[in-house]
Amino acid sequence: MKCEDEMTERLIKLEIEKLPEGQFLATSPELPGLLAQGRTLAETLEIAQDVARRLVESYIEHGDPLPEALRGELPAKFDLSIPVAA
């Protein structure tokens, strides 16, 4: 298994849903099994990133092929939205 420093970063799409009780839920159509819930959008994204990392580690440990979205190179330029408190 690659050590964390050797892993190449990839972008995956997340779908974020605001739940009726005010929390946020993140899933990914590109990484089956990714499910993250947090009190804030920032917390949910942090949890989703950790869950994604653990899922990728599991794929690698078990010798399973990575999902298609994780096989390509990171584009040279991309748009990314981040949560900002205002």
Protein architecture, described:
- The protein is an alpha+beta fold.
- It has a domain at 13-70: 2-Layer Sandwich (Double Stranded RNA Binding Domain), CATH 3.30.160.250.
- The protein has one helix and three strands.
- It has one helix spanning 41-62, and strands at 15-18, 24-27, 35-38.
- It has a three-stranded antiparallel sheet, with helices on one face.
- A hairpin with a 7-residue loop joins strand 2 and strand 3 (35-38).
- The longest helix is centred in the middle third of the chain and has 22 residues, at 41-62.
- The radius of gyration is 14 Å and the shape is globular.
- The termini are far apart.
Q: What are the key terms here?
A:
single chain, 86 residues, alpha+beta, Double Stranded RNA Binding Domain, 1 helix, 3 strands
Write the topology of this structure.
Blueprint: E1 15-18, E2 24-27, E3 35-38, H1 41-62
Antiparallel strand pairs: 1-2, 2-3
CATH topology of the domain at 13-70: Double Stranded RNA Binding Domain
Shape: globular
- Count of helical regions: 1
- DSSP E strands, number: 3
Gyration radius over CA:
14 Å
Mean pLDDT: 90
CATH architecture of the domain at 13-70: 2-Layer Sandwich
Side by side, the strands of the main sheet go 1-2-3
CATH class of the domain at 13-70, named Alpha Beta
- What are the segments in which pLDDT stays under 50 over at least 5 consecutive residues? 1-5
Could you tell me the strand content as a percent range? 5-15%
